[in-house]
Amino acid sequence: MSTGAGTEFADVTRSLWVDEPVARRRLPDPVRTAAVRAVLIVALTLMQAVTAFLCTVAGSWLAFPMVLSSVASTVVATWGVLDVWVTRQVWNQRNGVVSVPSSTARRMRRERRQARRTARIRARSPRPLSRA
Fold first, then answer.
1. Are 116 and 80 in contact (CB under 8 A)?
2. Of 24, 109, 122, 124, which has the most beta carbons under 10 Å away?
3. CB contact burial 65-75 (16+ within 10 A = b; e otherwise)
4. Can you list the alpha helix ranges (DSSP code H) found in 1-131?
């Protein structure tokens, strides 16, 4: 019996796209925007630094202006990375996202849930009939 290559896999059907649950939630929009901005600035700064280095090695007249602009770009790139950190901290403070189980925000949410639960139970409980 001669079987062609791959015939034993003919019964197996696999989908092209498999959705897997993500381990972490997606970044909030302002933080993601700052992160994309920072990545672009850092990439541009690295390209500029490499260009400055190559111009210096080649002895080009463009080396000095490129080194000066690379120093300025490094300052801007540092600002961009700090902007991501600050934006994330501000977003976390304003929206109450905390990951520590003993945090105040989580305790307050737990208390509000408990208060709503007891209010629902009281609303459902039958009231005693008063005889007049």
1. no
2. 109
3. ebbeebeebbe
4. 29-58, 63-95, 104-124
Q: In the prediction, which pLDDT does 108 show?
A: 82
Name the nearest CA neighbour of 33 among 98, 100, 84: 84
Name the 3-class secondary structure at 103.
Answer: coil
The answer, as to whether pTM is greater than 0.85, is: no
**pLDDT value of position 11:** 59
- Residues of the chain with pLDDT below 70 are 1-12, 96-104, 127-132
Distance between CA 70 and CA 64 in Å, rounded? 10
Contact criterion met (CB below 8 Å) for 20 and 77: no
